[in-house]
Amino acid sequence: MPKDAERAYLANMGESGVAHSLSKPFSDPQCGIQLASIGFIMSLLPPPPARILDLGCGGGWTSIFLARHGHDVTGQDIAPDMIAVARENARLNGVEDRATFLCSDFEQLELDGRFDAAIFFDALHHAEDEALAIRSAWRALRPGGLLITHEPGEGHSQSAESIDAMERFGVNERDMPPHVIIARGRQAGFTGFRVLPMPSLLFSTFYQERDFSGRWLSKRRWKMLRRAMRMLFMPDPKEGAVVVLTK
Ligand SMILES: C[S@@+](CC[C@H](N)C(=O)[O-])C[C@H]1O[C@@H](n2cnc3c(N)ncnc32)[C@H](O)[C@@H]1O
Predict the structure, then answer these.
(1) Which one of 77, 85, 108, 124 would you pick to mutate in the ligand 1 pocket, going by the greatest count of ligand atoms within 8 A of its CB?
(2) Which atom from ligand 1 is nearest to the alpha carbon of 61?
C-alpha cells in the first residue's frame, strides 16, 4: 500500500534521512532552487499574519520558513515521524507558537474553511487520489482563499530517481501536471487559476553560465529560452509548474 509506504519512508531512510529533513533545504543539493521556490510562493501569499495550511509538509521546512515570516501555519503530513521532526524543527527555530502540526491523510481532511491559503509543495504527486486531496484543500480555505501547488509535470514518474524511489520504498511518484490540477480544482469548486513557471525552469534558462566561445547562445540555450518564454506567455499544461487556484 503506497500510503503505508509513505508513513514508513523516513524510518526506511534511517538517521541520515532524519538529519536531512531537519536541516532541509540547507542539506539539499538543490538548496538554491528550493529557496527560490519558497521565496516565489511567499510572494504569492497575502501579507503576514495569514493562516496557511502546508499539506504534506514532511519535516516542516516550508512551514517554518512561512512561520518565521510571521504567518500562522498548520503543517500536515501522513507520517507520524515526519510530524515529530517538524515539531522539533519548529522548536529549534523558535516558532512553536506559529507553526503547529497535524498528522493525518490529506485525502480525508475535514478542516473548516478558516485558511487564507493552502500549499502542496512537492507533495500532491504522492497522493493516491489527487481529486480527494484538492477537495480537502478547498474545504479548508475561506472564500477567496488560494491553493498553491508546486508539483512536477508529465514524465516525472518515468525519471530514474522516481523509479528508484518507487522500487526501493514503495512510495507514489506520479505525474502531476497543471492540466490535472486545474481539472480537479474546477471539479472541487475553485473559480480561477494561474499557471506560473517553476523557479528551476527560470534558473536553467537565465542563470546558466554564458558561452563566450563564439556563439552567444547555444542551440540548447535557445531551446530553453523558447520553453521559458512559452511558459511565461502560453503556459504548457503538461510541464511541472506552480499552479494557483482561487476559491
Ligand atoms: C516529497 S515529500 C515533500 C515533503 C515537504 N513538502 C518538503 O518539501 O520537504 C512528500 C510528503 O508527502 C507526504 N504524504 C504523502 N501522502 C500523503 C497523504 N495522503 N496525506 C498527507 N501527507 C502525505 C509524505 O509523508 C511526505 O512527507
Answers:
(1) 77
(2) 9
Is 2-197+236-246 a CATH 1.10.15.40 domain?
A: no
Interior angle at CA 17, CA 126 and CA 176, nearest 5? 15
The residue whose CA is least distant from atom 13 of ligand 1 is 56
Instruction: Assess whether the C-beta atom of 79 lies below 6 angstroms from ligand 1.
Output: yes
Q: Is the pLDDT of residue 226 over 60?
A: yes
Domain ranges (residues) in the chain: 2-197+236-246
List, for residues 135-178, the tens digit of each pLDDT value.
Answer: 999 999 999 999 999 999 999 999 999 999 999 999 999 999 99
- Whether the pLDDT of residue 215 is over 70: the answer is no
Helix (H) or strand (E) segment spanning residue 37 = helix 31-44
Ligand 1 close to Cβ of residue 60 (< 6 A): no
Q: CB of 182 within 8 A of CB of 239?
A: no
Do residues 140 and 116 lie in contact, with contact meaning Cβ atoms separated by under 8 Å?
no
- Mean pLDDT, the chain, integer: 93
Closest atom of ligand 1 to 128 CA is 19
Report helix, strand or coil for 100: strand
Cα dihedral 6, 58, 195, 52, rounded to 10, equals 130
Residues 39 and 67 sit within 8 Å (Cβ to Cβ): no
- Does ligand 1 come within 6 angstroms of the Cβ of 171? no
Residue 247: alpha-carbon gap to chain centroid: 19
